[in-house]
Amino acid sequence: MSARTVATRDATLSIRDLTIDIGRPLVRGVSLELLPGRIHGLAGESGSGKTLTSLAVLGLLPRQARTGGSITLAGEELIGLGRRALNRVRGKRIAMVFQDPSASLHPQLPVGRQLTDHMRVHLGLRGAAARARAVELLETVQVPNPAEALTRYPHQFSGGQRQRIAIACALACDPEVLLADEPTTALDVTVQAGILQLLRDLAIERNLAVLLVTHDLGVMSAIADEVAIMKDGRVVELADRETLFRSPQHEYTRTLLAALPGSRIAEIAEIADEEDADE
Question: What's the pTM?
């Protein structure tokens, strides 16, 4: 890996020398530090191991996977935790947003039910208190008419609104860490920029440690504070965003940047900057 590293304070989530083997090694000694209030990007092509790394945090790997190394949440080791202990972490302390909100939102349950289920299980909230919090969450993620939205079903919303609802579900129990796996891939660039702006605002306002997994370096250029580049299961370069985009050290990073149209970075960054100016 490049000798450059990102100076860290106390990490909320620490991944040390993570290995994942499913018949063959797929992740090979990955180390990352996720800091509160910051977005850490994890980028690489398909098959590089970036999604497996995020799934390992929540113990969502296939049963036959063998995992080594260490993953700690505020100093508590997660690797080796039993299912019951992991279930107390999932959704409450660490939440995840997936690429396709249609897959994570139940099509036959109204949005309000899906939001309040999380609160009932992890926070013990029910009835009016849960509903009030659900409305507040939808306001936070900027879903229009939040009280009325609670009664509607996922298919009644646009793709961008569904992703905002999925983010609201992830935030329902005030997690310390948010894992976002390709959260904007299926969205057009204008909607994508709005979701990225939302993630950035949430990280700052809620002091969330965010791991953003994506193959799209244009997305990283608009939002990530630090970026780790993965190839063949390893982190080959780690740097703050400005340094990585201005002076990449690893040949693979330079190849990825060279393949990205300059207009792609500018387009996303420009829209994000416009939204900043409107606030």
Answer: 0.88
